[in-house]
Each structure stands twice: as structure tokens, then as C-alpha cells.
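Input.
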Amino acid sequence: RLLRGHRGQHRQRGARADRVGARRGLGDPGRVSRRARRPRTRVDRKGDGGQGGDHPDLRPGRQAPAVQLLRRLRQAGALRPAARPDPGRGGRGQRWLAQRRLVQRLPRTQGLPPVALPQAHSRRVQLSGFDAVRVEAAVRELLVGIGEDPDREGLQRTPARVARAYAEAFAGLTADPADVLVNVFDEGHEELVIVKDIEVSSFCEHHLLPFHGVAHIGYIPNRLGQITGLSKLARLVDLYAKRPQVQERMTTQIAEALVEGLKPMGVIVVIECEHLCMSMRGVRKPGSRTITSAVRGVLQTSATTRAEAMTHIYGQ
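Output.
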């Protein structure tokens, strides 16, 4: 009868008597609520409407801050067995909930490897001085990496040779610059002391390729006129050169060591070197030289004194 349109008169659709305007949906800004909500009369419980309370606030911007680091430990002993359904307590809903918990229980994890989360910072290598065995193994692996056979006749002893060469080239890593400038002499000298053309050979720490050249060191003794042996200046250069270096840092380190050890009135250090990382690779500019300088004390504040020192270094 319904398909044939024989609906009863009392069930025919029509406009309600109390409806004046058109029906408005929930998203319509002009919609008027049919009835007002009752005011909240119960007493607020502890934690209501606050973060971390009984009912967390789900409004935008009211969420609790996210946990920065989640540590997950998969241990079977930390899992309590799910409660079994008690037919004597509760109704059907309670028994269904207990069965649901039993099904969703985490599986046992005996025999599985532990889950380790990555640390916030990478672990630094423990330095223990020069290790010839590790150097030889690394050189052998390097030969394999570049496509060479480390067991062929010409390369069998190469790892050991490189280890001995590196032990000498990087001996400055374990030396203390304070031990070089221990002895001073009270000579009452108050003028410039300059040692020129000290040979420098070091390794660029960016490519582990050599750079070589000369260093010029000058200083004005302290008010007591104390000086140090001339060979000590050359030893100080070697100490800082025998380590992975950059020329700019090495120049500053030598100047600071002189200031700390001699307490002079002024210091000047000038180094000029050719870097093989520029000569044999990259831009390939053989013959180009890099000049760096560091000045301290009166040699930095007095232009006249600094000009005198530079004249002695580069003058004819």
C-alpha cells in the first residue's frame, strides 16, 4: 500500500504547525537551538577541565605537551596476565570485556632481541694514543676500498710502513707545548727576537694531504728581559705541525703558546705554505701559497713596531 501511495491521512508528511521558517542545518549560522541546555549544577571534580586531570581538555591548543622521548621495553616479565572472565560477577558486557582483553594481550617476547632506542648524541671515540695495529688494519682496508690487492708483492708491507710514518707525522698529538718553553734565561734583552724560515710540514685535516712551507716567529721579551732558546721556537712549530691541522689554527696556537709560556711584551707568527689539496686535486693550482699571521701585545697595538718586525721578516 505504501508503494501505491495509499498512506494514511494521519501519516501524511506536512509542515509542522509550530515551524515558521525553513529547516536550518547544524552548520547554519542562523540556526536557533530548539531548547537550551540545563546549567551545570554538579561540583567540579579534581582535575576537571585541566591537562592531566580526570577528563583531558580536547579543545585545540589545550593538549598536553608531547613526550620527547619514548623508551619501549619489551619484557615478558613486565606484562601482567589479563583477568579471566568471572561468570559470577557482572553481566554479559563484563564477560565480553574480559575476553576482549585476553585476546588483545601482548604476545610473549622470550627469545626476541631487546629494542634499543638511539641515543640523543653520538658516542665519542675513546682516545688512547697511537694504535699501530688499528692503523695497519685501516690502511689495508683502504687499499681494498680503492680497488687494490693488499696481498700483492708491492703492497704487502705498505700498511706497516704507513703506520710507522703516521706515528712520526702525528707525534705532536701526545706532546704538551708547555714542556717546550720550560727553560728561560734572564738576559735583560728588550728588543725583537726573530727566527725566520723554520720549515713546516703538516697534514691538512680535511683531506689528510700534506702542506709544507716556512714559519717566521718573533717576540719581544717581557719586562724582566727573559728569553728562551732559539731551538725551542722551532720545536714549538714542529709540535703543532705534527698533527692534523689547518694553517690558520696552527698559526694562532703557536702565538698563544708563546704568550702563555714566555709572557712577552709582543708576539708575531707568520706562516706561508703550499697545500697539496690545492696543488694535486680540486682547483689544481701548484705553486700557490697561503700566508697566515697572528700578532699579540705591542706588536698588535703598535703599527710602527709591527712594521719593523715585518721588515726583518720580508726585508732584503
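The chain has a mean pLDDT of 79.
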